[in-house]
Amino acid sequence: MAPSVMDNFSIGIIGMGDMGRMVNACDKPEKYESLKEEFSVQERVNIFPNGHLVSRDSDWILYSVEAESIDKIVAEYGTSTKVGAIVGGQTSCKAPELAAFDKHLPSDVEIISCHSLHGPNVDSTGQPLVIIRHRASQKSLDKVEKVLACFGSTTVHLTGEMHDRITADTQAVTHVAFLSMGSAWRANNQFPWEIPRYYGGIENVKINIMLRIYANKWHVYAGLAILNPSAKEQIRQYSVSVTELFKLMLGGHKAELEQRLKTAGQAVFGDPDKRQELLLRDDMLDQFSLSQPPKERRPNNHLSLLAIVDCWWKLGIVPYDHMICSTPLFRIWLGVTEYLFCNEEILNDAIKTAFEDTSHVSDDLEFTFGARAWSDCVSFGDFDSYRDRFEDIQRYFKPRFPEASRVGNEMIKTILEKTSDKG
To answer: Looking at CB atoms within 10 Å, which of 50, 81, 255, 290 has the fewest?
Structure first.
């Protein structure tokens, strides 16, 4: 029997973060001994002291590092890359990653990058997996696809530029909405699951995903937002939409707000008479609560949801166009915004609440401040401020992360099962 082209094909990972642990890798030199001990019982996993040795010994080298650091790390280890090897990366923003590869890798090295559009705790089966053939032969692409096939993901082939545009469309604004919720609740010293207004299906999504994001590492979101050129524009527009809608509420301009939201809803979701079955239903989400049902459920104006549809409308984004490359969180967020805008009674209740119930004003004020502050961090390219803000809020909510992770995993699993045939 002729030997397989995959015989003795070795994979090297530089960077052992949460995503790097999906395969095998090295990390910072000072972590060598601890990683060697941790992986000592796993067969065919070789831990090396540094990236030079990984690069020299591997046929496919995958950089799984922070997007902010990719240029520095490729500059350090790229020259040691094995002749004829394939190099790729897992960063969420491909512009700086591919630029670093072009700049620092030898010309005899091929470049195929990838990005799993889900977190490390989500089952990869059926989830989108982007493959970017930047500089490579068909033979090398076939090898990479054979390796990645073990995840059972849905493969999507894109250019680096297309990837960044789509991830901006589907992730950047979604993330900043939840980050701003955390900012508002932290500023008001609130745990939302203790407040009647934040009980119910849509509220469960807001709280669980907010906690899920803050339970992760800050750089996961900072890199995508700050280094992706398309993301900056979208995050800025979201902060503008939040501010303008909130001002309409404060000024009592109900007719103008209603007209603006109905126009945005039709642009994003289409003609009400031609809409398909909703992705989500409120009763499906009621079970995923972190608290007991209150005696009386309080209404909410859902400023965060109103603003995201307004933002999509202003930017000309049709979210359904990117469902094949959407993350689980985006599908959920799209589902709840669709549920709000495509149910006229619920949308009218939200608008009515905005003008008749003043109990939400302090929360909305802090939410507006939060959206603008996150936008400023991104616009200024300020990683330090982004990290400080993120980790301060993270510490505040940390005691609830274990329970939120458990409930959130159940919620995502249920929702993805319900929506798998509708995307």
So the answer is: 255
Amino acid at 227: L
Q: Would you say residue 289 has pLDDT above 80?
A: no
Residue whose pair of structure tokens reads 């982004």 in the numeric block: 386
Contact 89, 81 (CB under 8 A): no
Q: Please say whether the dihedral angle defined by the alpha carbons of residues 113, 119, 121 and 127, taken in this order, is positive or negative.
A: negative
Across the beta sheet with 60-63, the strand order is: 11-14, 60-63, 86-89, 110-116, 128-135, 154-157
Q: Are strands 128-135 and 60-63 parallel, antiparallel or unpaired?
A: unpaired
**How confident is the model over 155-211, as pLDDT tens digits?**
999 999 999 999 888 888 899 999 999 999 999 999 887 777 776 678 878 888 898
Element (H, E) at 117: none
User: What are the residues whose beta carbons fall under 8 Å from the beta carbon of 180, sequence distance 6 or more?
Assistant: 242, 304, 367, 370, 371, 374
Q: Does residue 20 have a pLDDT over 60?
A: no
Q: Determine how β-strand 86-89 pairs with β-strand 11-14.
A: unpaired
What is the C-alpha to C-alpha distance for residues 199 and 203, in angstroms, rounded to an integer? Answer: 6
